[in-house]
Write a structure and sequence with these properties.
Layout: H1 5-21, H2 23-49, H3 52-87
Helix pairs in contact: 1-2
C-alpha cells in the first residue's frame, strides 16, 4: 500500500506553516505529534470507512436478510409439519 502524496504534501504544508507562525508551541509538542501521527491517521481512516451512510446501508441489508431467513424458516416449518403428518 503506497502513500498518498497529496496527503503527505498537505501535512508538510501544515507543519511548515505551524513552524513559521508558532515555533514555540510546535517545538514543545513535536515529539508527541511525530509519535501519534500513525495512530491518529488510523483512527481518522477507520472513522471515514465506517461512516453513517455505510451503517445505514448495512442495516437495510440486514433487515432484508432477516426477512428472507424468517420466510425460509416458516416454509421449512410448514414442510416439516406436512412431512410429519403424511407419515403417520
Amino acid at each position: 500500500m503506497g502513500m498518498n502524496w497529496k496527503i503527505v504534501a498537505g501535512a508538510v504544508a501544515v507543519a511548515v506553516g505551524l513552524v513559521l507562525f508558532a515555533p514555540g508551541p510546535v517545538a514543545a509538542v513535536a515529539p508527541l505529534l511525530i509519535f501519534a501521527a500513525c495512530p491518529l491517521s488510523m483512527l481518522v481512516m477507520m472513522r471515514r470507512m465506517h461512516g453513517p451512510a455505510q451503517r445505514r446501508e448495512e442495516g437495510d441489508a440486514n433487515v432484508a436478510e432477516i426477512a428472507r431467513l424468517r420466510s425460509e424458516v416458516e416454509a421449512l416449518r410448514l414442510q416439516h409439519v406436512r412431512d410429519r403428518d403424511g407419515r403417520f
